[in-house]
Automatic annotation (TrEMBL):
Official protein name in the record: Beta-xylanase
Family statement drawn from the similarity comment of this UniProt entry: Belongs to the glycosyl hydrolase 10 (cellulase F) family.
Group of enzyme by EC: hydrolase
Annotated keywords: Carbohydrate metabolism, Glycosidase, Hydrolase, Polysaccharide degradation, Secreted, Signal, Xylan degradation
Pfam families listed in its UniProt record: Glyco_hydro_10
Chloroplast as UniProt keyword: no
Gene Ontology biological process terms in this record: xylan catabolic process
Gene3D superfamilies, per database record: Glycosidases (3.20.20.80)
Compartment(s) of residence: Secreted
Length: 371
């Protein structure tokens, strides 16, 4: 710890323009700082050059190419071409890989949503899908969300894990899957989906068990939004994780998506991350961006910078918060404008791949005094 303090002290006096995000995260004993990416973006050479910069990004998540519609468009017919491309991108640069995802109510092919399957048949479909997906990437992914997640090619420049983290220092391949994604409503009740309406909560256990069987070393996550601050949804997630662990159902982590709004970061975020970690699971910020209503202004830029600082500080101060993933790093490829009309500028780099003040908000968060 003395060595870590000295290193952080040196960085604090250095120009923040020289600091890089993955380095700072790992100096704070996190496993990674990373980003999501998507296959069409990989044709942009300038984008790929920065995506491959492991000093900023030591982890990748495929935004779409491991989802159900991409991987099993027809029943029993699997296609891993898109996912393989992103995994290969990560492997070439020694980056960790998180899988995304096994079971989600969106981006499902029609054969799943309109199949009118009975309970037993749909459970067998979930089991086969999750087992085949996780099995295909066995040993190559850190975690997958059901939304279960996978980590891959963890480079040996890592400075060391917290004592609670059960991982040998020589391990270079970790696996995590965001296995189960967005299974709760904001009031803490279960979301009405084809899976819940047909099987109740049985599909949750089926997905997790199938994933664990397919890759016993994969970290399995439940992943959701609007659980950044205290509230009924976060409580429901925590209660489910505790119930699953009590029953011996494999669940290793909670993914806190962190699609946030400028000026509206929950004041209880650090407290809530600690609450989620008190379940015995690790936690990770899995899809971080902080959007604003356009046009941007100096005041909004200043607040966004502070908000990124606040979020990073919250993860830094919670030991079991293992890492942070941006939901892409540049506004050029952000999902926000296409989903939230009139909103955008959510990422730490602009459309031209220039660092924004938000980038230095992240730096400040990692460099700030630990609580």
């Amino acid at each position: 710890m003395a060595k870590l303090s000295v290193l952080l002290g040196v960085l604090a006096f250095a120009s923040v323009s020289l600091a890089q995000l993955a380095v700072l995260a790992e100096l704070n004993r996190k496993l990674y700082f990373g980003t999501a990416t998507d296959n069409p973006e990989l044709s942009n050479a300038s984008y790929v050059r920065q995506l491959s910069n492991t000093l900023d990004f030591h982890q990748l998540t495929p935004a779409n190419s491991m989802k159900w519609d991409a991987t099993e468009p027809e029943r029993g017919v699997f296609n891993f071409t898109g996912g393989d491309q992103i995994v290969s991108q990560a492997e070439r640069h020694g980056q960790i890989m998180r899988g995304h995802n096994c079971v989600w109510h969106n981006q499902l092919p029609d054969w799943v949503t309109a199949g009118n399957f009975d309970n037993a048949t749909l459970l067998s479909i979930v089991e086969n899908h999750c087992g085949t997906l996780v099995g295909h990437y066995k040993g190559r992914i850190f975690s997958t969300a059901t939304n279960i997640a996978l980590l891959l090619n963890f480079s040996n420049r890592r400075l060391g894990c917290p004592q609670w983290y059960n991982s040998a220092s020589s391990v270079k391949l970790l696996v995590a899957y965001l296995s189960l994604t967005e299974i709760f409503n904001d009031d803490g009740t279960f979301r009405q989906t084809v899976f819940f309406n047909t099987t109740g909560t049985a599909y949750i256990k089926t997905a997790l068990r199938a994933a664990r069987k397919a890759d016993p070393h994969a970290k399995l996550y439940i992943n959701d939004f609007n659980i950044e601050g205290s509230g009924p949804k976060a409580t429901a997630v925590a209660n489910l994780v505790k119930e699953l662990r009590a029953e011996g159902v494999p669940i290793d982590g909670i993914g806190v998506q962190s699609h946030l709004i400028v000026g509206e970061v929950p004041t209880t975020m650090q407290q809530n991350l600690q609450f989620l970690a008190s379940t015995g699971a690790e936690v990770a910020l899995t899809e971080l961006d902080i959007r604003m209503t356009l046009p941007n202004t100096p005041a909004l830029t200043e607040q966004q910078t502070k908000d990124y600082d606040t979020v990073i500080t919250a993860c830094k101060n919670v030991e079991r918060c293992i890492g942070v993933t941006l939901w892409d790093w540049t506004d050029k490829f952000s999902w926000v404008p296409g989903t939230f009309a009139g909103q955008g500028d959510a990422c730490p780099w602009d459309d031209n791949f220039n660092k924004k003040p938000a980038y230095f908000g992240i730096v400040k968060g990692w460099l700030g005094q630990k609580a």
